[in-house]
Amino acid sequence: MLTRFAPSPTGELHLGHAYSAVLAHSAARAAGGRFVLRIDDIDGSRSREEYVAASLADLAWLGIDWDGEPVRQSQRLADYAAALDTLRARDLVYPCFCTRADIAASLSAPHGPSGAIYPGTCCNLAAEDRARRIAAGEAHCWRLAMDRAAAQAGDLAWEEQGQRMRPADPRAHGDIVLARKDAPASYHLASTLDDANMGVTHVVRGADLIASTDVHRLLQELLDLPTPVYRHHGLICGLDGKRLAKRDAAASLASLRAAGVDGRALAADLRAGRLPTGYSLQNP
Ligand code: GLU
Fold first, then answer.
1. Which InterPro entries has this protein been placed in (predicted)?
2. DSSP state string for 168-233
3. Both 241 and 150 in a single domain?
4. For position 86, which CATH number holds?
């Protein structure tokens, strides 16, 4: 068994991250398996080195040890580019030149699990048009041609903690972005490729990412990657009953540490499903 914890270094870790890391770590250790870290720093404009260091310090404080050096998404760009080339060669992605404002202005842009569903404006541009605009340096992202991709993929079933889930239906996401204008891969593409490359057998993560798994299953099928087992755990809610967010300073691990909380005792409590007073677990 190999599990992972994959923080994005865009803020301080909070109790919800600690819960996720503790579950992933203890699942691996209980099975005599490995536990690895991945730093999801693909978004260069929001990632900060100080948050990488703070996250590692938080994990050490919780008594969580990891195997090997943390993997960094910022060093895996060649793999993301190669996957995009594969999809491009199969005509499953297309360049999109729309701005956010263009998409927001479209009357047919309802929201799906990955944000606004792309209205398809750039889907049917002529090949010469695309080539000319790219050659002229016009900013563009690359989108998955969802209908074609879903039609090519076979069985998108997956296993959630020993239970076979409904087959994923990624079409609700629309033509998602796989490579952004400002980052060489989207979360969906990078995370799916990394989990496969790292040999992750069990993905343990928050239930807020359950809808993303539909897209990840599709990408696994298209790119011939293995399917891990998933465990989407409940989310910790704060004193106001709302899901914790990075801006909730009171629940940050750094502030608990500064207040003298014993990290190892906290990890043992979280492992046993006991939360600090006032916090609650919202199950999926
Ligand atoms: N970096 C992601 C986050 O912090 C986690 C991605 C994942 O577990 O797949 O939300």
1. aa-tRNA-synth_I_CS, Glu/Gln-tRNA-synth, Glu/Gln-tRNA-synth_Ib_cat-dom, GluQ/Sye, Rossmann-like_a/b/a_fold
2. P-GGGG-S-EEE-SSSSS-HHHHHHHHHHHTT-SEEEEEGGGHHHHHHHHHHHHHTT-PPPEEEEE
3. no
4. 3.90.800.10
